[in-house]
User: Fold Myotubularin-related protein 10 from Asarcornis scutulata.
Amino acid sequence: PFSVLGEIVVNEVNFVRKCIATDTSQYDLWGKLVCTNFKISFITDDPMPLQKFHYKNLLLGEHDVPLTCIEQIVTVNDTKRKQKVLGPNQKLKFNPTELIIYCKDFRIVRFRFDEAGPESAKKVCLAIAHYSQPTDLQLLFAFEYVGEIYHNPAKKVNGIDPGGGGGGSIGSATGQQTPLFETYSDWDREIKRTGASEWRVCSVNEGYMISTCLPEYFVVPSSLADQDLKLYSYSFIGRRMPVWSWNHPNGSALVRMANIKDVLQQRKIDQRICNAITRSHPLRSDVFKSDLDKCLPSIQEIQAAHIKLKQLCVNEPFEETEEKWLSSLENTHWLEYIRSFLKHSAELVYMMECKHVSVVLQEEEGRDLSCLAASLIQVMLDPYFRTIVGFQSLIQKEWVMAGYQFLDRCNHLKRSDKESPLFLMFLDCVWQLLEQYPAAFEFSEMYLTILYDSARISLFGTFLFNCPHQRVKESTEFAISKNIQLGDEKGLRFPCVWDWSLQFTSRDRLLFHNPLYIGKSAPCVQNGAVKTFKRSKKNYSSTLRGAPPALKNGIISDQEFLPRRNSLILKLKPDFLQQTESQSNSMEQYFRDWFTKPVDLHGVILPHISGTQIKLWKLCYFRWVPEAQINHGGFITAFHKVSLLADEVDMLNRNLRQYKSNSSLQGSCSELDQSRMYFRANGLNDTTGAPDFLSSSFPFSPVGNLCRRSILGTPLSKFLSGAKIWLSTETLANED
Assistant:
């Protein structure tokens, strides 16, 4: 099971029971609990009871948990009525009879040591605590792995070369390349793809000479000289000067910017930046500034909502809280915050699409809320970002390279008070759009869930660092300490998460594809060629309804508008009401018009945000909860049926082609093996029912995960509401 290069067994204990059910031990599995420097692993010869399907990850076994996915480790001795939350360098004064692992993905895994050697059990618990809570970034497994790769270039993880981290592009589930935006040429291609002719790639930050939290290359207005950028950069927090994200076909640009800390220079620099953005617009339109810190929830509020959501999904038995469940969900504020991100992004889509103005997203450091808002705006406006490769390139561009602090926000080192699940909230917002417009996205909700899981596998460099500079700095230090010759490379090359072949077989990767997708980049049956989306202006419904009035020398602030709660409509302040009726109501009119027309799947998509239309992402949050699992139910049953229909359509097309070209039967058989569907039809008019293993948790299984309060009858709410210990001594009892 330890096939990953650099993975070593640190400690292990035999005769361990993995608990499968809370109320009985009859299903428990016997085996060996192993702690490695990458994961905890349970090795058993017993077949998993009650489980009919297992989705295989090539890096992780059925019972494995990556160390970076562990949130808390609790050891229990139920004869002495003691328990302890284990920190990294703590001693354990009692021999544990039980170990409970709380995971960041809402799983709870429980082992008992009744038959195991007491000292061995204690040692394995201490080893798990030590290795899952490293004190330094270079102790994360990815460094061990790349160290082995550089010393043994012939060896590869699972026989596959690591990708990414050193420039260029990486192959994806579709076989196309995902641009990593580490090079000048990737940015230049994106400028050309979006037709941003008045913008240029700037290399003033090469070697991270100006800002350590910006990428080496980024895009700026052509009218701004490098010398000016260097000068202005000192006035911005983190020296994060304004950077371009995307261009609308009508010329409006999306720009991200940190706050200006130099109060004396603020107005002057602000004006010069906005003038440069205006000059880059073909219509010389005004600039609309959105202060995200003032109109969106803070990262602390998002973290608090996530803790409450976890408490609700993990801690509360459904049968006891059913009548209060919806109000409890509302009290978490999670869905409310999702609504506010979708709503604000849609309002900015209106400014770019309809008012033809460039939008500047302003935030204190420009690397948290703006990652989410910029990405959502682009998903709504550009169908390329609704394809698998496009979506991956968007995450590279707006999160990885833009300096989103994955190390701190995901809390990989378990000591950050800066933890906040913004990346999860982004995936949840995208899931809301996918749920509302299933035919507009090439990827499935399984893809989004697995992407979220992959952020907590410490083999990949993609989601490991706070910024590209940190990767270069830390990996260069590591290389020197390990005598690794880097040559011309900027830091070590870590495996890239977009190389999905490291985790899944090509067959399993078919689950990433959405069978409902109708897209110009979907594999097209005609002549067997894959056709990609060609961007053209006619795909966008842009109607000029008059640019907004010039304010503050061409800058429009979104404080000039008062949003109405829970609507995609902005009301104007009284002094604006002297403007014509059509202008003051143009946003209201735009949304009303848009929702009355048929959706152009290759144009703009806007979210429905009324109360019932923002939903809880059940696959992600409920997949480990046995009580929440619906056997032979859930969205997967529709996914299965549509897959069979799509496969039958592909089959008919192949038969037609064969009929026209008179090709041999062998040819059509080899084509059949290349089906793009995970679920395949057994010939035309397939009437077979859904497979027995389908459930609302598919492709995951809640068997063996105990996400409920009834573990030894102990509530988790004390920890989840801020206390240090999850278990309460009063309710501890010996279950057996």
Notes: The mean pLDDT is 83. The longest helix spans residues 635-661. The longest strand covers residues 9-18.
